[in-house]
Amino acid sequence: MNKGLTHVKAGDPLEIRAPVWNAMLDAARGRQARQHSTGRTPGPDFRGVPILIRNDSGADRSQYGILGISGVVFAATDDGFKQRIVLTGETPAADSHEGKFAVLAEPIGDGDIGPAIVYGTTICQVDITDASHEYADIADGDAAKLTSAKSGPVQILWIESGTGAKWAVVRIGPKPPEPEGFWGKLTGSTADGTNRWSYSFTEVYKATAGYGGWASLTGGRSGTARNTIEDGNSPSGTLGNGVAVSSLDTDDYTFTLQPAPGDVIVWVRETDQGGATEYWFQYENGIDGSCD
C-alpha cells in the first residue's frame, strides 16, 4: 500500500517519509509564490498530462516556458521515487533534450517545484522558421519557446500566422515515424562510369497546387544522389530501362542513353552505408540520337 500519498481519515496514523515531505513542501511553497505572481494566467484549461518538475535552469521560468528533462528528484533507492514522480529540468540543449522536455503549466522559480506538461495538448510559443513546418522540438539554449521542424515530437494544431515566435496550440506525443524518403529536385549530373551518372539535388516541398508549385525547403537536404535504374548499367548488355546496348548503334542510326535531366522532381530515399548516408532515386532514362 502506498503510505506516502494515500488519503487518511481523522484518527488514522499518519506517516510521511522525509523525502516526500520535503518535495511536497517545495511544491507548496512554489505554488504559493506563483499565486502571487503576475506571470501566471489564472485557471489554464490543460488537456495534457501534468507532472511535477524542479526548475534547475538557474533562473526563474515563466508559464509556458520550456525545460529539458535532466533527471529525477528522488533516486531510485529513495522511498519517494515510488510514491511521486518529480522530475528535474534545465535549459534545453540540442542532442540532450530533443523529444525530452516539459512545458511549464505555471511560472516556476529557480529551484522551485511546479506542474508541467510532458504529454498531451497545451499552449506554448514556437519559433516558426519555415511556414511549411507542422511539427516542433526544443531549441538549443532556449527556455522560452520551441522551434518548428518538418517532423518532431510536437504537432502544431494551430498557430498564429507568419514566421518567428508565435503562440500555438500543440500536442506533445511520440515522434511520428519519418517518411520513407523526401522530394528532391535534380540540379545537374556528372558521368559515373559508362551509362551511369551521379546527380546533384536539393530537397523541395509542394508550396502551391498544380504544376510548378515546388519550392526549396529551408534547411533541407542536398548532395549527390544516384539512380537505381542505372545501377546495373554497363557498356554492354541490357540497360536498366530495358534497352539493349547493341540496339543503340547500327548502320542506320546512333543513339545513346541520356542522364535524367535537370529540374526533374524525384522521390529520394536515404540509405546508411557504414555511417555514411547515400541518396537514391528512381528515374527511367531516355535515349536520344540521330539517323546515320
Counting structural domains, the number is 2
Number of helices: 1
| Average residue-wise pLDDT | 87
What can be said about the biggest beta sheet? 9 strands, mixed
SSE class: mainly beta
Q: What layout of secondary structure does this protein have?
A:
Elements (H helix, E strand, L loop, with lengths): L17 H18 L13 E7 L10 E7 L13 E5 L10 E4 L8 E16 L6 E4 L7 E4 L4 E6 L4 E9 L9 E10 L5 E10 L7 E3 L5 E6 L25 E5 L7 E9 L2 E6 L5 E5 L1
Parallel strand pairs: 1-3, 5-7, 13-16
Antiparallel strand pairs: 1-5, 2-3, 2-4, 4-5, 5-9, 6-7, 6-8, 8-9, 10-11, 10-15, 11-12, 11-13, 14-17, 15-16
Name the descriptors.
292 residues; mainly beta; 2 domains; nine-stranded mixed sheet; five-stranded mixed barrel; 1 helix; 17 strands; elongated; disordered N terminus
What can be said about this structure in brief?
The protein is mainly beta. It is built from one helix and 17 strands.
Task: Please give a structural write-up.
With 292 residues, the protein is mainly beta. It folds into two domains: 18-172, no CATH class; 182-291, no CATH class. It is 6% helix and 40% strand. It has one helix and 17 strands. The chain has one helix at 18-35, and strands at 49-55, 66-72, 86-90, 101-104, 113-128, 135-138, 146-149, 154-159, 164-172, 182-191, 197-206, 214-216, 222-227, 253-257, 265-273, 276-281, 287-291. Strands 1, 2, 3, 4, 5, 6, 7, 8 and 9 form a nine-stranded mixed sheet that branches. The chain has a five-stranded mixed barrel with strand order 10-11-13-16-15. A two-stranded antiparallel sheet has the order 14-17.
